[in-house]
Amino acid sequence: MTEITLTRPDDWHLHLRDGAMLAGVLPASRDFARAIVMPNLVPPVVTAKDAAAYRARILAALPEGQAFEPLMTLYLTESTDPADVAAAAASGLVTAVKLYPAGATTNSASGVRDIGKVMPVLERMAEIGLPLCVHGEVTDPEIDIFDREAVFIERVLAPLRERLPELRVTLEHVTTKDGIDFILGAERNLAGSLTVHHLILNRNHLLVGGMRPHFYCLPIIKRERHRAALVAAATGGDPRFFLGTDSAPHAKDRKECDCCAAGVFTAPNAMPWLAQVFETEGALDRLEGFASLHGPAWYRRAPNADRITLARSEDPLPAPAALETGAGPVIVFDPGIPLHWRVRA
Ligand SMILES: NC(=O)N[C@@H](CC(=O)O)C(=O)O
Ligand SMILES: [Zn+2]
Ligand SMILES: [Zn+2]
User: Fold this and answer.
1) What is the percent of the chain where pLDDT is above 90?
2) Is-contact 305 231, C-beta < 8 A?
3) Is 84 a catalytic residue?
4) 340, exposed or middle or buried, with CB in 10 Å at 0-12, 13-18, 19+?
5) Dist. CA 217–CA 270, nearest whole Å
6) Whole-angstrom Cα distance, residue 197 to residue 85?
7) Residue minimizing CA distance to atom 6 of ligand 1
8) For residue 345, what pLDDT band results from cuts at 50, 70 and 90?
9) Whole-number Cα distances in Å, 35 to 204, 247, 318
10) Interatomic CA distance for residues 326 and 195, integer angstroms
11) Distance CA 310, CA 228 (A)
12) Is 17 marked as binding a ligand?
């Protein structure tokens, strides 16, 4: 048996939802000390007041004994008030502001249609050093779904970076080599988060032999050469890349239906799968940087003081059971290959 001990990781992109789903999925993030919590609720978390109330609901739903700090975000709309954002940042309530292009993903209808309209907010954020987290996809129906990230970089992100180079931007859930190369080409103020499932799956897993709704998420899983670029970035040790699981629970009946919701629920086994990816690459020594150190450095926080241990067993683990929540069962990420790693209690 092999073991590896590392600084406790953080999840820099997590969906916790609300109500019964929140209560059900919160314990699944127990491997992580902190998480950036996404604001795409219905209605979205737009103001500092919304974020304070949502934070209180998360803390109230936290099980006894689970040490977990939710790092709050605000959902950027075309009527967001720069002063409200600045006050929320100054008080320490929010860690980032989230840009959803309107219509790009789950609950993004109140997002941004015209980036010109949010420039006053972005300028204020650049002044105070508050990061912008970005779902980087265009929604132009003419653009092929597999190209939407690359076209977003070209049409929106590159011009934004030229116009406002002081703005700190996290390109979240990077899924393409184009995204990786864009981050590598930036000298400063740009970083990228990577999910676990995009490191493991390519679009054949999604589509060959039958459609797999539990692998459907946005940005959509890409072809193998992109996956390989993501793995190289994650395991390469570059501090601009770090873990954001984008664990996105939807009840089973919202995934297994005629028009399935986008999102993969990876919170319960993200760290075991990540250990396996890094082991396969011969890069276990770089797992701690990716999962526990690069993210805090980018978000200007100290790494966690405690540690976790991952253990490898010869025999593979049983496939994960669905998580039962008050909002229905949620299927846990299972790429269908043997998993040998677990987090030691
Ligand atoms: N990733 C997804 O496919 N879905 C996320 C939204 C998002 O992060 O884009 C969700 O909220 O379900
Ligand atoms: Zn997204
Ligand atoms: Zn997400």
Assistant:
1) 99
2) no
3) no
4) middle
5) 16
6) 32
7) 106
8) confident
9) 30, 11, 27
10) 26
11) 24
12) yes
Q: What confidence tier does 101 reach under pLDDT thresholds 50, 70, 90? A: very high
Q: How many angstroms separate the CA atoms of 44 and 77, rounded? A: 10
Tokens of 254: 């919202």
Residues 85-124: b if buried by 16+ CB within 10 A, e if exposed: bbebbeeebbbbbbbbbeebbbbbebbbeebeebeebbeb
Q: How far is CA 247 from the centre of its chain?
A: 7
CA distance 303 to 10: 9
This model of the complex carries an ipTM of: 0.99
Angle value at C-alpha 33, between 28 and 35, nearest 5 degrees: 75
CATH node for 2-343: 3.20.20.140
Kind of pairing between the strands at 2-7 and 11-14: unpaired
Indicate whether residue 15 lines ligand 1 (CB < 6 A): yes
pLDDT at residue 1 greater than cutoff 80: no
| Ligand 1 in reach of 172 Cβ (< 6 A) | no
Query: Hey, whose CA ends up nearest to atom 8 of ligand 1?
Result: 246
Which ligand is closest in space to the CA of residue 244?
Answer: 3
151-208 residue pLDDT tens: 999 999 999 999 999 999 999 999 999 999 999 999 999 999 999 999 999 999 999 9
Q: Which residue is listed with tokens 């720069």?
A: 82
CB contact at 8 A, 95 and 37: no
Which atom, in ligand 1's list, is nearest to the CA of 216?
3
CA distance 309 to 280: 18
What are the residue ranges spanned by the domains of the chain? 2-343
The structure's pTM equals 0.98
Most distant CA pair in the chain, distance:
56
Q: What percent of the chain has pLDDT over 70?
A: 100
Give residue 299's identity as a one-letter amino acid code: Y
